[in-house]
Amino acid sequence: MSLEDTVNSEIKKAMLAKDQKKLAAIRAIKSEILLLKTGKGKDGITPEMETSTLQKMIKQRKESAEIYSSQNRADLAEEELSQAAIIETFMPALMSRDEVTSAVKEIIQETGATTIKEMGKIMGVATKKLAGKTDNKTISEIVKELLSNQ
User: Fold this and answer.
1) 25 CB contacts (<8 Å, ≥6 apart)?
2) Which residues are CB-contacts of 113 (< 8 A; sequence separation ≥ 6)?
3) DSSP letter, residue 39
4) Residue 93 φ/ψ region, left for φ over 0, alpha for ψ in the -120 to 50 degree band, beta for the rest
């Protein structure tokens, strides 16, 4: 079952349950999927594209929640965080930190990087290999950790 089918099914369930918060978050996902489908030069939507879109949506909501919190708007921050949590339920299972660390170690060996100056080369490979399985912030932290120890 594709993400679009799952989203449509969940919209129906949320409407029947009269769950407005969940419905708003799921409709936002559907909107992003439609934007992907109608984008310029798009032949089809890959699972990686769907996952990266969901990650982007979650990141946007968390950043908005931080801004609202800093402006003493806990009500709006709570709304953003609840939407992020609902969107996360549509994400595939992410890799654990240990799994990411071992994958990054392999990439470092493949690229032959030894210093922090070569971080860009590692990040380029790692972000492509681990797309949709973890976020770039985690990859960056692990790369810095591993290269600073060498």
Assistant:
1) 82, 83, 86, 87
2) 119, 121, 122, 147
3) S
4) beta
The values of phi and psi at residue 4, to 5°, are -60, -45
**So what's the pLDDT on residue 79?**
94
List of domains in the chain: 3-88 (1.10.1510.10), 97-148 (1.10.10.410)
> Given phi > 0 = left and psi -120 to 50 = alpha, else beta, which region is 18?
left
d(CA 130, CA 102) in angstroms, rounded, equals: 12
Question: Which residue's structure tokens are 């709006």?
Answer: 76
- State the Cα–Cα distance between residues 86 and 25, nearest whole angstrom: 7
Q: Token pair for residue 58? A: 């979650």
Digit-coded pLDDT (tens) for 84-132: 999 999 988 778 888 889 988 898 888 888 888 888 888 888 888 887 7
Categorize the per-residue pLDDT at 150 as very low, low, confident or very high, splitting at 50, 70 and 90.
low
User: CB-based burial of residue 138 (10 Å sphere; 0-12 exposed, 13-18 middle, 19+ buried)?
Assistant: middle
> Rg of the Cα trace of the chain?
18
pLDDT of 35 higher than 80: yes
